[in-house]
Design brief:
Elements lengths: L2 E2 L16 E9 L5 H9 L16 E8 L3 E8 L3 H7 L4 H5 L4 E7 L5 H18 L4 E7 L9 H16 L4 E5 L6 H11 L5 H15 L3 E6 L5 E6 L8 H18 L6 E5 L4 E6 L4 E7 L6 H19 L10 H10 L4 E2 L9 H21 L12
Helix pairs in contact: 6-8, 7-9, 7-10, 9-10
């Protein structure tokens, strides 16, 4: 049954106003632990095998990564050679550790100098405690692909317990990672998620959008990195790592397209059980919509994505929005009133028996309007 939600508020929220959100991120660890490789994969579009040609980092490499438009990550990749590490804790201590918001410390799981690694980590924590006591601490137990699969859980849990104990009175969050699978995306998605200033409003609106279009799941990916920044899950799924797997697969496909001179825009995967749509959403995101009802036409989902775009744009860029007293409620309401085509049996939908002809006419009109727009010039071809 297809229907249309009525009513439009005239204003959208403004309470999340910010101009630029700069976050200083320290990436530290022993030389050869894999810091620069993971940074290059996430932020510089490297693939895993190409990181072999990267050399050791000399001193501190500064990079400024614009993330979600107004969020800027000032990423300091600190060389891990012993001479540099000693300087960080002596002559450069105030310069390196002042105003830090995130410390990401990378451990090589197969390091033969674990005691030295832990000593340097504790020195980092002491400097953080003195200069940036409110910083978030993350530890990445890296190169887990080198550990036998049956031993990975055991080894990681042991390292995690040791790190949490050594980090007190600060708290650390540990992840196991490898550049060869989705664990790297999982870790960095979780880290970046905690840095997005309006993430709760984003999630609230995403949940509302998913319920209106009757989607099983909706995911938002950051456009450049393809990290998952928000998601809504309305049906249970047995694979808890599927989001990061999708990130990895689609980013590699996107890079393959660029090498062939093609531009990735969107795709649709459909079988008798589900349909998955990945499409450009806002200027900073891609959206993925999973539907388990194969009877819902592709055009209806594409219309819904198109109609919700500008309201999520306003959610990401509240400087450009009008004022409102309740940002989260108004954002969700605004998405709900975006002219979305409903795909289920909610009380918000028109009665099928009373409004069938009217809905068919409305839907046909929306299809015609959609076909007139260049980005949907061929609705039967998901690879436009």
């Amino acid at each position: 049954m297809i229907g249309k939600i009525k009513g439009f508020p005239s204003k959208v929220f403004h309470a999340l106003k910010y101009i630029s959100w700069d976050v200083l991120v320290l990436l530290m660890g022993k030389s050869g632990s894999g810091k620069t490789s993971m940074r290059s994969i996430i932020f510089a579009n490297y693939i895993a095998r190409d990181t072999r040609r990267l050399g050791a980092t000399i001193d501190v490499e500064h990079s400024h990564v614009r993330f979600l438009g107004n969020l800027v990550l000032n990423l300091w990749d600190c060389g891990g050679q012993e001479s540099f590490m000693e300087q960080y804790f002596a002559s450069q201590k105030d310069n390196i550790f002042r105003n830090v918001e995130v410390l990401i410390y990378v451990f090589d799981v197969e390091s033969r100098e674990l005691d030295r690694d832990m000593h340097y980590y504790q020195s980092c924590l002491e400097a953080i405690l003195q200069n940036s006591p409110d910083a978030k601490i993350f530890c990445l137990v890296h190169k887990m692909d080198l550990v036998a699969e049956e031993q990975r859980d055991i080894i990681f849990k042991e390292r995690e317990e040791d790190l949490k104990r050594l980090s007190k009175p600060l708290e650390c969050t540990a992840f196991r990672t490898s550049i060869w699978d989705e664990t790297l995306y999982r870790a960095w998605s979780n880290i970046v998620y905690q840095l997005i200033p309006n993430v709760k409003a984003l999630e609230h609106s995403l949940n509302y959008f998913a319920s209106v279009v009757d989607a099983d799941e909706v995911l938002l990916f950051e456009r450049a990195t393809f990290l998952v920044i928000s998601h809504c899950q309305r049906q249970q799924h047995r694979d808890s790592h599927r989001f990061e797997k999708v990130s990895n697969i689609i980013k590699q496909f996107k890079l393959s397209c660029s090498k062939l001179g093609a531009k990735f825009s969107s795709m649709e995967v459909r079988n008798s059980i589900f349909a998955a749509f990945i499409d450009t959403f806002t200027s900073n995101t891609y959206v993925m919509v999973i539907m388990s009802d194969p009877s819902i036409p592709s055009e209806a989902t594409l219309i819904n994505i198109r109609n919700a775009r500008k309201y999520f744009e306003e959610l990401e860029n509240p400087n450009n929005s009008l004022s409102s007293s309740n940002p989260i409620h108004t954002a969700a309401t605004h998405v709900g009133h975006a002219g979305l085509v409903a795909n289920g049996g909610s009380s918000l939908y028109y009665s099928h028996h009373q409004q069938h002809q009217q809905l068919q006419q409305q839907f046909l009109q929306q299809q015609q309007q959609l076909q007139q727009q260049p980005q949907y010039h061929n609705l039967n071809n998901p690879y436009h």
